[in-house]
Amino acid sequence: MQKVLHTKLTDLSQIFELFEQSIHYQEKKGYPVWRNYDKNAIIKDIETGNQYKVVIDSALAIVFSVRYADKIIWRELDTGNSIYLHRIVVNPEFKGHRLFGTILEWAIEHSKLKGLCSIRMDTWAANPTIIEYYKSFGFEFVENFTTPDSEELPVHNRNLALTLLEYT
């Protein structure tokens, strides 16, 4: 049985381990990686109720964060009517299970409850495999964008070439 729940501070060690495993996997595959990911941003997401986990039979399968505004990355395209998915990290034991579908189902329902029109996300522009993966769920390409070196962004999101995607 799959459930989407808020993460808790007691999940931190497991969340950080998932990030480390994800970085190792991405490096092994030659993909861009989260260099010096911002642990404080993850803690803040947990404390503000903006990070979630998908639990399958009591195992933490995947984590993700949400935002309701993303002016730095989406600029004038952010008109206040979207939910933004960030920092999606899958437990390697669940790779290949297409668990992003569970996140998307949750995000669709959550968006309806909040009266939002679309679901948006960004991913590495240099990873066509992950871009195609998200497109297979119905996301459409919006544009490529390189983030500024802004203290408003977590360290791992600065000067990053991204592809912006949207589901409507």
Per-chain topology:
Blueprint: E1 2-6, H1 12-29, H2 39-47, E2 51-56, E3 59-67, H3 71-74, E4 82-90, H4 100-114, E5 118-124, H5 128-135, E6 140-146, E7 161-167
Parallel strand pairs: 4-5
Antiparallel strand pairs: 1-2, 2-3, 3-4, 5-7, 6-7
What features would you describe in this structure?
The chain has 168 residues and is of the alpha+beta class. 32% of the residues lie in helices and 30% in strands. It contains 5 helices and 7 strands; from the N terminus they run E-H-H-E-E-H-E-H-E-H-E-E. The protein has a 7-stranded mixed β-sheet with strand order 1-2-3-4-5-7-6. Strand 2 and strand 3 form a beta hairpin. The two termini are 27 Å apart.
Descriptive key words:
seven-stranded mixed sheet, globular, Aminopeptidase, alpha+beta, single chain, 32% helix, 168 residues
What's the main sheet like?
A: 7 strands, mixed
Structural class: alpha+beta
What order do the strands of the largest sheet run in, or round the barrel if closed?
Answer: 1-2-3-4-5-7-6
Corresponding CATH architecture: 3-Layer(aba) Sandwich
